[in-house]
């Protein structure tokens, strides 16, 4: 079998050192269709950025008890309400050792298909997924597939914000604003 190039995928990961209670990981993806059109299929199982949370953070613990909390920028909380919903960011926080910690996936407003949808599950799966519309909307007549046309590119920018505390203590909304907006510089 001969390998065939179908498109070009370039990735850049930047890890930011921040104060003691947070870290940021920026993930930039550039997809270029270099050998014809490329179809990104409608599936809830895929996504461009995926995480698994620590077992103790999972919303639903193996013994049936409550663990962590899922919440998105729209205030939709837990898998029941946040799964498959479009939002600028989604946060998953819960106990890790002696502290509460959280992970936020942030979708940049210049990304194609913004705001992305989140395949976020109570068992710890956490994915930014723009392509699973028929699943997320529970309507198989909708096709969430997207075609990257030959010669065109998609640039996707995401930030994973790792913070101490829940969504409020971690100041997730302010952190998203810093990611999504051009920085303001004031000279005095």
What does this molecule look like?
This protein has 3 helices and 11 strands, in the order βββββαββββαββα. A 6-stranded antiparallel sheet has the order 1-2-11-7-6-5. The model has no long low-confidence stretch (mean pLDDT 93). The chain is globular, with a radius of gyration of 18 Å. The chain has helices at 78-82, 133-136, 172-180, and strands at 8-17, 22-32, 38-40, 49-52, 69-72, 89-96, 99-107, 117-120, 125-129, 146-148, 153-164. The protein has 188 residues and is mainly β. The relative contact order is 0.24. 10% of the residues lie in helices and 39% in strands.
- What's the helical proportion of residues? under 10%
Q: Strands of the biggest beta sheet: in what spatial order?
A: 1-2-11-7-6-5
On the 0 to 100 scale, the average pLDDT is 93
Order of helices and strands: EEEEEHEEEEHEEH
Structural class: mainly beta
User: What share of the residues does DSSP label as strand, in percent?
Assistant: 35-45%
> What is the tally of helical segments?
3
Shape: globular
Question: How many β-strands, per DSSP?
Answer: 11
Could you list the spans in which at least 5 consecutive residues all have pLDDT below 50?
A: none
The end-to-end distance, rounded to whole angstroms, is: 64 Å
**Biggest sheet descriptor:** 6 strands, antiparallel
Computed CA radius of gyration, to the nearest angstrom: 18 Å
